[in-house]
Design goal:
Two copies of one chain form a homodimer. Chain A is globular and about 60 Å long. Chain A has helices at residues 4-35, 40-53, 58-65, 69-81, 103-124, 129-150, 156-182; strands spanning 55-57, 85-89, 97-101. Helix content of chain A is 75%, strand content 7%. The first copy, chain A, has seven helices and three strands. Chain A is mainly alpha-helical. Chain A has a single domain, classed as Winged helix-like DNA-binding domain superfamily/Winged helix DNA-binding domain (Arc Repressor Mutant, subunit A, Orthogonal Bundle). At the A-B interface, α1, α5, α6 and α7 of A face α1, α5, α6 and α7 of B.
């Protein structure tokens, strides 16, 4: 049995190494995307819209990026100003605003996808596919607990299923895009 | 053997689940710290200073938080304005500015530490100590690769050893503080 102090020390080591790895990953990705004229934040917004079917609402982007609609609104405003996104009224719900990706952003997105996939492959190369599945399994359990904490009484399995469906759709789109690019 | 497409899909699933878990963790921690009148960002700055021995330079804080000195400078400015930090010239290096924690911040830090350790324990409870060690091992390998990518030719083992020493010092300080609080 571990003492309370040992358990706490182990927990904090996990949080610290995940924080460091995540932050260093994001810093490297920022540098890679800067070469393509994007930030990680903007890249994620473009991926979210792409994933949603070429046009998306602020709430769709916020959900995918796990950000508040307020902070996504601010990023989207700046991206519209810089000619990366275009606004359009939703045909079915006239209060909602859809955003779509401009040609200019599309031209940045393809090399950004290639560079980020290449970078991720390089960073992940020391891990076997069993290791990757181990991380997915352990983090899914942590995710479950976080969702329970944040949404008491909610259907957590349903939320995780939606997450996973959304993600599968993105992977498929990225693969299709690559096929189009290399064809 | 996995095809390129399968490997890429697996890599992206790992990145996605780590991103989601990390972001959800940070969102929950933000809410918990808001009750204490802190943000996660400010809490990390206070921890970094505490860890460094009650006073620290901007570069020390930036290093610990894996942030740029510019962004840390801006956070520190606002924290000084809000009475959470105090500036003082370094006695040995007159160009450097040290910051230290005020009584007001100290009073926020103790309940923030208790609340965040409690939250971390709750989220980590589904994992065994073997699981925790597995995460530490796998993420240390990813960290190694990220450091190699970012600092070609550097002494990565040295950097990882420094990280680990810094972290051990913080754990010890947090435990000491708790003993003082509960005594």
């Amino acid at each position: 049995m571990m003492s309370d102090a040992e358990l706490e020390s182990l927990n904090l080591r996990v949080v610290r190494i995940v924080y460091q790895t995540y932050t260093r990953f994001q810093n490297c990705l920022d540098e890679i995307l800067a070469v393509q004229g994007l930030t990680t934040e903007r890249y994620f917004v473009l991926l979210a819209i792409k994933n949603h079917g070429d046009t998306a609402r602020i709430t769709d982007i916020a959900r995918w990026a796990e950000r508040s609609t307020n902070s996504v609104s601010m990023i989207v405003d700046r991206m519209v100003k810089d000619g990366l996104l275009r606004r359009a009224r939703d045909r079915r719900d006239r209060r909602a605003v859809n955003v779509s990706i401009t040609r200019k952003a599309e031209d940045l997105l393809t090399p950004a996808n290639i560079a980020s996939v290449e970078f991720i492959r390089k960073i992940m190369s020391p891990l076997s596919s069993d290791d990757a599945h181990t991380i997915i399994g352990l983090f899914t359990r942590l995710n479950y607990r976080l969702l329970e904490h944040h949404n008491p009484g909610a259907d957590i399995d349903g939320i995780l299923k939606d997450d996973s469906d959304l993600h599968d759709r993105l992977i498929k789109k990225m693969a299709e895009q690559r096929t189009l690019t290399t064809a």
